[in-house]
């Protein structure tokens, strides 16, 4: 993909920390590739990187203006166009992770062309995929699956990749969403693939490999999310996972963007994912649970994780607080 | 959509009867809209309509040349382009149900433009969909689901629609694939929708309706098909079905296009569909089974259907041989 960097992370007027996942991901996992963040009045969240104007970002050497917010449906708010024009004028290319293509917005397309800047829509696959086959291929694969959207599947997968690589285990992070692609520099945004090709695109993303190589595949959505379960199921079948890690966010009171809809239990998520995953890999196992415990104290987090281990007989960690050692151990 | 008709059905050099489903559907369900079929040397299947040349089709008044074959992945074989050019020259518009857009094939695009003909890609949605909500809406809905692809979901759904309409029940057939769209003149090909919007597109296809109105929604694929299960699941969640009809083809020895992969049992299909469907409609019920028994005699078909009824406690019919009366009765 050859993404230009360093990045200036644009978080618009966001007020929901989950909605700036793309910017936060780059700030957390590739801070050396980011000069800072740029926000608009009304914005009440932050990536933790220094705030600056577009001009200051350009002075710090930013080569790309990253649209670092995501919203259900991925539509670009017209009020954000002016900032994009300013970034183009300040010398930056634009990296976009929304469903809307920047080239379809005439004002942006014309300005980019006039100035010779690139508009990079990282969510849109440029490959022509085949339909899935379900045929077993060499190499080992782990997939993170969730009780809901935005519960830490990408963070868990990246933590596993870095943890395993540091132990000398052959492991590759496979990005399946715009945030992961921004961090990894490559991948396939499966939620933007034409639905006939979901599992086929994932078969292409993590093809046959060495017998002792692990593809660590970032999960998307949840089999229990009524908007996105189709994406999750195609991803599950195309991954043919040997190992599943169940991801959960503690104390979330409803499914993402669906007030009133409660989250499924860990047991339900395990059961439904195993039943579906056995269609392409009868030997699939759940090897552990990963929980985003940021809503509680360190002590409460430990109590919760221990209770999950007791209840399910599986290791349970918050990767940010406890590391992923227990999960890697379970994998071996 | 305003499709031009009557149709000349082009079946290429097909040898697999299932691969000309689109042409056969139009011939079976809308024969009054078809003048005949056109095939190439090597073709060993037929729609049952009179064979004719493109010139003869034009003389009989054909206004559209329908690419009546489908193949996994939906790619247009380059050897078929010459026939399309001839049909354009003979005065016809082209109706295409493949993933490939006709406008992307320069030879066809140029000829159509020069002659002022329409290239109609009925598989490609022209609507911009929202993501699904899972929120319950008024009206009743039935969805056909399958043990496999191409087992008779569309035929069952159309049979139910005509059967219910003839009894004065408010019922609308909702097409979700190119064949159904060709018959109904409208619909959404869900396997061509960007995967984030599968269930949202189905919510748009069968919106809130009268409390006593039935949307009869054509199913796609199978939750057990490793290539297409994501499409099937999004369709299931977006449909919010009150009633499911399980569709099956008797004596099929492997999943469509996947030699060696056996079909799931009816019990497995019922269990997995109910578990998933309850996410958007906890009151969903399986009301019957529909079997394509064309591989056996009338007597054997009856024996088989009776055995299914005994085994599952559900009405079981071949809609073509036995009608759908038993299913409509179960619905009431």
Automatic annotation (TrEMBL), chains A, B:
Residues 43-125 form the D-glutamate N-acetyltransferase-like N-terminal domain. InterPro entries: DgcN-like, DgcN-like_C, DgcN-like_N, P-loop_NTPase. Residues 132-328 form the D-glutamate N-acetyltransferase-like C-terminal domain. Pfam families: DUF1611 (PF07755), DUF1611_N (PF17396). NCBIfam families: DgcN (NF041892). PANTHER family: DUF1611 DOMAIN-CONTAINING PROTEIN, GLL3100 PROTEIN. This is DUF1611 domain-containing protein.
């Amino acid at each position: 993909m050859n993404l230009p960097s360093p990045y200036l992370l644009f978080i618009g007027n966001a007020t929901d920390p989950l909605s700036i996942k793309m910017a936060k991901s780059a700030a957390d996992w590739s801070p050396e590739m980011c000069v800072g963040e740029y926000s608009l009045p009304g914005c009440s969240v932050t990536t933790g990187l220094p705030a600056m104007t577009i001009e200051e970002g350009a002075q710090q050497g930013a080569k790309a203006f990253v649209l670092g917010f995501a919203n259900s449906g991925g539509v670009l708010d017209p009020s954000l166009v002016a900032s994009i024009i300013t970034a183009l004028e300040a010398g930056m290319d634009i990296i976009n992770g929304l469903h809307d293509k920047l080239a379809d917005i005439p004002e942006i397309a014309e300005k980019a062309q006039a100035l010779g800047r690139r508009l990079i829509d990282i969510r849109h696959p440029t490959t022509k995929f085949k339909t899935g086959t379900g045929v077993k291929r060499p190499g080992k694969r782990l997939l993170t699956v969730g009780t809901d959207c935005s519960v830490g599947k990408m963070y868990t997968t990246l933590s596993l990749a870095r943890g395993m690589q540091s132990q000398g285990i052959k492991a590759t992070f496979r990005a399946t969403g715009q945030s992961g692609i921004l961090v990894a520099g490559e991948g396939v945004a499966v939620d933007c693939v034409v639905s006939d090709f979901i599992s086929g695109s994932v078969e292409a993303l993590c093809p046959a490999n060495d017998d002792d190589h692990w593809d660590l595949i970032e999960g998307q959505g949840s089999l229990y999310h009524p908007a996105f379960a189709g994406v999750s199921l195609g991803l599950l079948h195309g991954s043919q996972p040997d190992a599943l890690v169940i991801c959960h966010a503690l104390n979330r009171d409803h499914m993402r963007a669906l007030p009133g809809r409660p989250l499924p239990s860990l047991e339900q998520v395990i059961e439904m994912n195993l039943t579906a995953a056995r269609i392409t890999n009868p030997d699939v196992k759940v090897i552990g649970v990963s929980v985003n415990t940021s809503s509680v104290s360190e002590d409460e987090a430990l109590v919760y994780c221990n209770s999950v281990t007791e209840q399910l007989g599986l290791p349970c960690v918050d990767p940010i607080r406890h590391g992923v050692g227990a999960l890697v151990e379970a994998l071996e």
